[in-house]
Amino acid sequence: ACIINGDKAFIRKTHDYENRKIYAVVLKGENQATLKRFHQEGDTVVLSPCNPNYQTIITKSEDICFVGECVGTYHAMK
Fold first, then answer.
1. Residue 58, Cβ density class (10 Å: 0-12 exposed, 13-18 middle, ≥19 buried)
2. Of 1, 10, 25, 78, whose Cβ has the fewest other Cβ atoms within 10 Å?
């Protein structure tokens, strides 16, 4: 995915969630969204970062709220 700090993500609202796609999600009780690769088995959700500097999040499906699917990114020239 090559998503790094400073990139802009294009998010599309969706109600269909598929394993291995990248979504913007909010963890209930948190005040910010995160961009992670989604994988669900039963009631357990694994949110894997595209950036190795961040941690994998393992939680229950009822503890997340989907913002939408990442459909593209913009890498700013530095």
1. exposed
2. 78
- In the block, tokens 């989907």 appear at 66
44 in helix, strand or coil? strand
The structure's pTM equals 0.86
- Spatial neighbors of 10 by CB under 8 A, at least 6 apart, are 70, 71, 72, 73, 74
- CA quadruple 37, 40, 46, 51: dihedral, nearest 10: -10
Tell me the C-alpha distance between 70 and 52, whole Å: 18
Residue with tokens 């690769």: 37
